[in-house]
Amino acid sequence: MARRKKGDIVNGWVCLDKPYEMGSTEAVTKVRRLFNAQKAGHAGTLDPLASGILPIALGEATKTVPFMMEAQKVYRFTIHWGISTDSIDREGEIIARSDVRPSVEAVMAALPSFVGEIDQTPPAFSAVRVNGERAYDLARAGVEVELQSRRVTIHEAAVTAAPDADHVEITMRTGKGVYVRSLARDLAIMLGAEGHVSDLRRERVGPFSVDNAVTLDFLEELAHKGAAFEGLLPVSTALDDIPELAVTDQDALSLRQGRPIVLLPRQIETLKARLTAGSRLVSVFEGGTLVALGNLRAGRLEPDRVFNLP
């Protein structure tokens, strides 16, 4: 007999506004306990020294986490000029100083070089694995490693504030795998300056943003009132850019059993018009309830992920 999982069946997303100095794993644990949920995970690690959007999936929502890993993100961060640290943030050891303070105009002129598809080398203090070990563990142990550059995409980057000569604030929209600290490092090098990230906030991950975010304090208040579910977003929130298909209860049953369904020509044409280039993925609903994610192939919809939602 299979062991019964501890906790309750809870399905949905929490768009958490993570506070500073809290790790992503700790945040997931706190949210999971507030809901007494059986299963939880997050969509994209956020460093303890960063605040902002950390989407946390509960129950069936964990099946949609891979789609959030591919989602665009928006970061707002501050570079402190004059000091470089080994971790490129305010927690690191100081490794260099300089009197150079790049002007706002100089920063604005340099940023276009970092927009588009670029090669970016992760910071030494990062979660990248080197021979099975995390780069930050090796860096803390004094081991020098040469990390390989990777192709990443930065869609937009702009100066959004300059409170004084020592600081400049930049907001950027990125694809997956972009390191804010690497951009700060490379920008400082281009401008002949020293600098590190002194403040970092993630403002958006796909459909999750500051507009639909909740804090831990707010969730705790709701849980105390027995209303924690008011802070929960639907499982389908993560699929907002995937075309939807409404099906009958019979087709829904077939998909839940792992069997493909045949679509009508008009359904196929409608879906094809909504699909993004190179994608065949469709989200399927029955009476407003998410049933499955499926791939459109040769006039049929083949289930890829099936959801067990009430």
Question: Care to describe what's here?
Answer:
- The chain is 22% helix and 35% strand.
- By secondary structure, the protein is of the alpha+beta class.
- Strand 5 and strand 6 form a beta hairpin.
- Helix 1 runs parallel beside helix 6.
- The longest helix has 12 residues.
- The radius of gyration is 22 Å and the shape is globular.
- The model has no long low-confidence stretch (mean pLDDT 91).
Secondary-structure-based class equals alpha+beta
Distance between the termini: 24 Å
Largest sheet: 9 strands, mixed
- Tally of extended strands? 18
Q: CATH-wise, what's the superfamily of the largest domain?
A: Pseudouridine synthase
How is the quaternary structure best described?
single chain
Query: Rough shape?
Result: globular
pLDDT averaged residue by residue = 91
CATH level-1 class of the largest domain: Alpha Beta
Per DSSP, the total helix count is 8
Question: How many structural units, i.e. domains?
Answer: 3
The secondary-structure element order is EHEEHEEEHEEEHEEHEEHEHEHEEE
Instruction: Write the CATH fold name of the largest domain.
Output: Pseudouridine synthase
| Proportion of residues in β-strands | 25-35%
The value of Rg in angstroms is 22 Å
State the helical fraction: 10-25%
CATH architecture of the largest domain: 2-Layer Sandwich
Spans where pLDDT lies below 50 across 5 or more residues: none
